[in-house]
Design a protein that fits this description.
It contains five helices and two strands; from the N terminus they run αααββαα. By secondary structure, it is of the alpha+beta class. The protein has one domain. It is globular and about 35 Å long.
Length: 87
């Protein structure tokens, strides 16, 4: 999650993410969610774009990018995310 949200209590983080997801789903609205936290990103997103040094290095569905990444720099994080519970 972003810097402001890391300071929030975990329950508040979950509430904010749930509100973002609910609003996006109910209104069929697009959402640009910028974050360094892939678990939170995976929760609110259907598709993900991964950038490194301002260049897109990977893009696709949440499942493709997080669990089946072709980018070697993404693989260690992918393994950690599989075992984590997303809010």
């Amino acid at each position: 999650m972003t810097k402001w949200s890391r300071r929030l209590d975990v329950s508040v983080q979950g509430t904010v993410l749930n509100l973002l997801k609910k609003y996006s789903d109910e209104n069929e609205a697009g959402l640009i969610f910028v974050s360094h936290g892939l678990p939170a990103t995976a929760f609110v997103s259907k598709d993900i774009v991964v950038m490194r040094n301002g260049v897109i290095v990977e893009q696709g569905s949440v499942d493709d990018v997080i669990h089946h990444s072709k980018n070697p720099t993404r693989r260690p994080s992918s393994r950690r995310i599989r075992g984590r519970l997303v809010p």
